[in-house]
Amino acid sequence: MFILEKLIISVATTGGFTSREHTPYVPITPEEIADSVYEAWKAGAAVAHIHVRDEYGESTLDLDTYREVLDRLKEKNCDIIINLTTAGGPNLTSDEDRYRVCELSPELASYDAGSLNFGPNVFLNSPEFLERLAGSMKEYQVKPEIEVFDIGMIQNAMSVAKKGLIKPPYFFQFVLGVPGGMPATPENLLFFKNSIPEGSIWSAVGASKDQLAINTMSILLGGHVRVGMEDSVYYRKGELAKTNAQFVERIVNLSRTLGREIATPDEAREILGLKKAGSQTKDNEKLGQLSN
C-alpha cells in the first residue's frame, strides 16, 4: 500500500500586495502578523512565510521589523519554521536589502528563481542576483525555498545548484495562477512536479480562486501546501476569511479526510532536511491539539 508522507502546511499571512482595501482582516503590524502566525501554528501550520510592512502598510524588508515579529513568536514559545521573504513587494528594488534578509538566519527564505511580468510590474531576478542570493543563503545556513512561477525557473535554480550554491534535497514552491505566470491547471501542476530532480520536496500555491483546488491536488499527488491571505482573501466565493487559521483548519480537515496526516514543525524539519534540536514535548503537545 502506498502511504504518503505527512503534509507540511505553510501559512502566508500577509504577502506584499494584499491590503486593507482587499480585506479588513489581513494582518499588517508586527503584532498582528505574529498573532496570526501563532493562531495558524496552533491550527496545524508547520511553516510561516513572512512578509512585513512599514508604518504606512507598505512592503518592507527592514530587519528590525522582521526581528519584532520573530521576537514576538519566540515569546509565545512558537516553534513554527520561519520562512522569510527576500522578495518583499512591488516597490522594493534594492538587491542589497534582499541579500541582507539572510543575516537573520531563518531556517528558510524565498528564492524566486527567475524574472517575470507580474501583472503590471516586472519582477526582476537576474542570473547574477540569483547567484549572489544563493551565496548569501549558503553563508548564513538558510535553505532556499525555490519559488517557481514558470517552467524555466526550475532550470535557473538547477544551474545555480550545479555551482554548489544550493544543496539537495531541493525544496520547490510552485506558484500557479498569478498574472504572467503558469496558469493553475492540473496539467501544469503535474508538469511542474514531473520536471524537478528526483528526491526533491515540493509544495504548491494556487493564487486567488485557485487556492483550494491546487491545495487538494497537491495533497493527493504527495506534495505539500501553502495557504493564507497572501494568496487569497476569500474562504469561499463571496465570503472573506476572517483569519489565516481558517485556511489552515480547512486543509487539516481535508487532508485527514483524504487519509493524510499533518506534519508538526519538527517533522517538517526532518522532511525538509532542516532538523534542529527540537522539543519532543512540543511535538506531542501539537499532536494533541490537532487531534482535539
Key structural traits:
two-stranded antiparallel ribbon; 10 helices; globular; 8-stranded parallel beta barrel; 18% strand; alpha/beta; 292 residues; 37% helix; single chain
Please provide a written account of the structure.
- It is built from 10 helices and 14 strands.
- The protein is an alpha/beta fold.
- The strands form 4 sheets. It has an 8-stranded parallel beta barrel with strand order 1-2-5-6-9-10-11-12, surrounded by 7 helices.
- Strand 5, helix 3 and strand 6 form a beta-alpha-beta unit.
- The longest helix is centred in the first third of the chain and has 14 residues.
- The radius of gyration is 17 Å and the shape is globular.
Task: Give a brief outline of the structure.
The protein is α/β, with parallel strands linked by helices and 292 residues long. Helix content is 37%, strand content 18%. The strands form four sheets. It has an eight-stranded parallel beta barrel with strand order 1-2-5-6-9-10-11-12, surrounded by seven helices. A two-stranded antiparallel sheet has the order 3-4. The protein has a two-stranded antiparallel sheet with strand order 7-8.
Query: Strand order, biggest sheet?
Result: 1-2-5-6-9-10-11-12
Distance between the termini: 28 Å
Structural class given helices, strands, pairing? alpha/beta
Helix content: 25-40%
Radius of gyration: 17 Å
Largest sheet: 8 strands, parallel, barrel
Q: Helix and strand succession? A: EHEEEHEHEEEHEHEHEHEEEHHH
Which regions are unreliable across 5 or more consecutive residues at pLDDT < 50?
277-284
Strand content is: 15-25%
Mean pLDDT: 93
